[in-house]
Write a structure and sequence with these properties.
28 strands; 2% helix; mainly beta; elongated; six-stranded mixed sheet
């Protein structure tokens, strides 16, 4: 560049001088930090704000960006190389982290425990159950599904589970913190049978020596709601007769068992619905089953 100086007043003549405009050094620039980035399985390329004396610079015009170790969890960095009116390079470190597993939940029957959790980017989930004999958690499932049904469980038994997500990267293996939960299985579901005679129905069910009693529910062909009609507080009682019925009505029955644990009632699932009546053809039992509800 050039500057021209002209004399005035007592001075005459003209002087032309050449000077150089140097690019602004990287040390004069201001950079935004990069927050932690969540692992996605793909390369992450976070944006960086660059400012010089109140003006924002433009990527690919004033500088270019390359990244190092920007796929796997761990430490990564963005490398900014300046051009044009700016010179130098700048490295900005950031971290790639695994998303935490959330909503680890369980629902139990008398024979199984269904577990599920939030799906996060990873290569594998590892599900564990606590083994009381070994006094440690042991693996029960490896895979990519975010749910699992643990079968062949014992009724009215407490189980402890843990789950974590794992990524197998080029530079190592990365794991989330484990999520934990405790769940108790229900009593096993009773099986029932019905015998109808003289305006009465006798309901029989399978005995469960681990429970405290049973509850019988009934639904009629004019009501889509099951209602509790009998509570039996004896685990050894395995039948009950519902008397005084109308021979022209249809009746549906289910039974569930219960156990009182620490002041709380733990119920089994409802048994399979059983039908008794003289005119089943007037009402589709499958329709009633799909619409049923329970009044406890």
């Amino acid at each position: 560049a050039y500057v021209t100086v002209k004399g005035r007043g007592l001075y005459t003549g003209e002087l032309v001088a050449e000077f150089e405009i140097l690019p602004a050094d990287v040390s004069l620039l201001t950079f935004s930090s990069i927050p932690a980035q969540y692992y996605s399985g793909n390369a992450v390329r976070p944006y960086v704000d660059v400012e010089y004396q109140g003006y924002y610079l433009y990527q690919n015009e004033d500088y270019s960006v390359s990244y190092v170790n920007n796929t796997d969890p761990g430490k990564a960095k963005a490398v900014l190389s300046f051009m044009g009116n700016y010179t130098g390079t700048k490295e900005i470190a950031f971290e790639i982290v695994l998303s935490s597993i959330e909503n680890f939940t369980a629902s139990a029957t008398g024979e199984s425990v269904k577990l599920s959790w939030t799906n996060v980017p990873c290569d594998e989930y590892r599900l564990y159950v606590y083994d009381n004999s070994k006094k440690k958690y042991v693996t029960v499932k490896k895979g990519t599904d975010s749910s699992y049904t643990h079968k062949k469980r014992k009724q009215l038994t407490t189980y402890k589970y843990a789950v974590k997500a794992i990524v197998y990267g080029e530079n190592g293996t990365y794991k989330t913190d484990s999520m934990y939960l405790t769940v108790m299985t229900k009593p096993t579901t009773p099986t029932i049978s019905l015998t109808a005679k003289n305006k009465a129905v006798t309901i029989k069910w399978s005995k469960n020596s681990k429970v405290d009693g049973y509850v019988v529910y009934r639904m009629t062909n004019w009501d889509y709601e099951y209602e509790k009609i009998k509570s039996i507080n004896n685990k050894n009682t395995t039948s009950w007769t519902n008397k005084g019925l109308n021979k022209d009505d249809d009746y549906y029955y289910v039974v569930r068992s219960y156990k009182k644990v620490d002041g709380k009632y733990i119920y089994s699932d409802y048994s399979e619905q059983k039908f008794s009546g003289s005119s089943q053809s007037r009402l589709n039992a499958a329709t009633l089953k799909s619409k049923r509800s329970y009044k406890v």
